[in-house]
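Deviations from the work plan: none for this task. Representative record:
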Amino acid sequence: MTIVFGLLGFVNFAHGGLFTVGAYAGWLAYTRFDSFVLGIVAAIVVTFVLGIVVERLLIRLYYDRPPEDQILVTFGLGIVLVESVRALFTGQTQLVATPSWAAGALQIADFIYPQYRIDVVGIVALTLLAVWLLIFKTRLGLIVRAGIDDALIVEMLGIDIGRAFMLVFALGAAVAGLAGFVDAPILALNPDVGTSVLVQSFVVIVIGGVGSFGGAIVGGLIAGEIVSLTSVFAPDWAQVALYLAMAVVLIVRPQGLLGVVGRA
Amino acid sequence: MILRPVGDRTGWWVEGAVALFLIAFPPLLALAGVGTDLGTRIVILGLFGLGVDLLFGYTGLLSFGQAAFYGTGGFVAANLLISHAVPNTLGALAVGTLVAAALGALVGSLALRQVGIYFAMLTLAFGQLFYFLENSPLRAFTGSENGLPGVPKPALGIGAWSIDCSSSIGTYAFVATLYFIGFFIARRIVRSPFGAILRAIRENPERATASGHLIARYKLVVFTVAAAYGGLAGGLLGVFQGYMPPEAFSIDQSGEIIVMTVIGGPGTLIGPLVGAAVWTFLRQALQNVDAIAGIWKLILGLVFVLLVTGFRNGLVGGFVAFARRLRPAR
Amino acid sequence: MSAMLEARALTKSFGGVTAVDGVSLTVEAGTIVALIGPNGAGKSTLFKLLAGELAPTSGEIVFKGENVTGYGVTRVCQLGIGKSHQITQIFPSMTVSENIMIPALAARRGAFRADLFGSLQRVDGLAASVERTLAAVGLTDRAAMRAGDLAYGEKRRLEIGLALATEPELLLLDEPAAGMSPAETAETVALIQTLRTTVTIVIVEHDMDVVFGLADRIMVMQNGATIAYGTPAEIRADARVREAYLGGADDA
């Protein structure tokens, strides 16, 4: 799931909060209407709209400010979002049932996988495809990629870069929200789920590569493998191994495995 | 030509004012109906924040992993004291600080290979690394979720005479003294040539480099210093509480100290102390108001976002700017 | 007599684009060399190579007999090459004298010193250096002013001052008169004239009056390569130069 964060070429500290919001929004819809699909839709829509509102009101003010300020505001935003959710829904952990059509387990060779997890992989793949198409095959995506490289020229060409950035931000928010809901049956639901996911997504980006689409995927796969393998052999060290890998990548190849130098 | 320290037109009166404040703090707290212990807590956080301010306020390095050093310093000192390996409180604290500083040098040498958001992400991840390290593999030393109880109260002995700091006010005095020393040192650093270059790095790193400075080394040194401050503060926390909590390593702790520094005012050195006070008081006050007890963090979060957006220099910075406007132009 | 600066067959390629193509250059101590050429000729890139901002794809740079190819900006600066940039890069929230202090600190203290407890007053010769530089660029009365509040021309002078404060032996000036009014340009020229006694200068400029008035030698670039190098008189008479600049439509 953390792969999805990496693909947009940027991530911000508020994504943890958006993850959480999406999870809760989707859960609300899921339980009220007893439809998983509706839950997904709710998660996406709510976070997308939230993303637009936030970008318009707040993020927009920060484009000319140094990166540290941008980090601070998205960090603060993340806190506000998480705490709002906590206030509305209490801090108790909720269990979210897997949808009935995904219950059960599949046996593949020696491994037994819960059916739902496989479905999640499918959803991730679909999302990846959708986003990839958007960024690389549409005009909007082209504008955004150009804008990241040189915003001034894009503006001078008469294209409203502001709107494009806003949409991308909202898209990122929606992706985070989707991830939040889809992960809910696996991770259980409480206001703090977003934070650890956020950090892990950072690790994925560092390992896979700064500013690289393929890198995010590779990073995610590697990260996932590291955690799984160490969980089997030395469970105490599972999380530690992940962060160690990140440190190693930094020493050996600071721009990440598939990253582009200087893209920071 | 008199060369004033870069960006700093204040004199020794700041140190004097801080000293006065520290002395007046407990009685002020008593007036407000609050115990001295709260004050001790605030001062410890202020000390932690001194390092963060040097790192972020002056050099522009935003690190979300400072809790790693806070926790390390704390647990090292706590372990030494509990196991009586180093029964002397100051000695244990010193070792804790040094270990934290060494760790800071190590982490810094890796994390500083990136800048901006990637640096921030890295520090975040390192912070997490230490959190999980502390939680599992090093369980024996850190008591995992339960933390480390039984840290003895400070017993300061120098030769024949010893000071018993087991009382509330005694502990406060101990902590406040160390804070003042830390503050004094931080002020000297900021006003030194080294400090001037830190500011240049924050303002325009490319120009600083092109002017002939090896900014990577300056960054590493200040990172190490910040880690040392964190380590000392962590050690004091354990001694003060008689117990070392695992949350000291948490990402929340890293985030909190950043929030406090920004709210108080980055680049002012007293900002973190002010921010810690605001955070702690608001937390107390809001929790006593039933209607909004559960959302104190939300309110503080909103305040934080507002300050970053509008009052980038925090409360102290805003106050200074206001005071300057009142004073006629020199 | 060996030259202060020698560039030998410098080439810089970015992917498929060759910005600098086998350029060789010799700069004698105590002279002013001007670098001219149409836009895109490669002048800025060449400057970046000389200042250590970029490493050449091939070729060498020898400064005072030492091969400095590939040394980074910091090291090059400490060795004695200073650069004033085309786009002003100052420390906007610091005062003018504080701005000058930063490079002066590097010159006086070296690339790194952990003097966390030191005092600015006690840095050997710092105050004198700052005063001198301020006077050289005519900003003494602006010393306490916030750098970001300076007028454009003053900022350009500060830019030169920042390069000067590193106590260079070779000064690279990248379009110092860019965006200046005729009066300001004249002031800048006067400033450079006063500097020629203490530093060797290489200057990139578009203003031909400035160039021909100042330079001892002129190097003309086009498409990344040198097309001419000589005294102002020689350059004025050179047919290739005229073609490059005026496309043949010349009636001078």
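The two ends of chain A are 23 Å apart (CA to CA).
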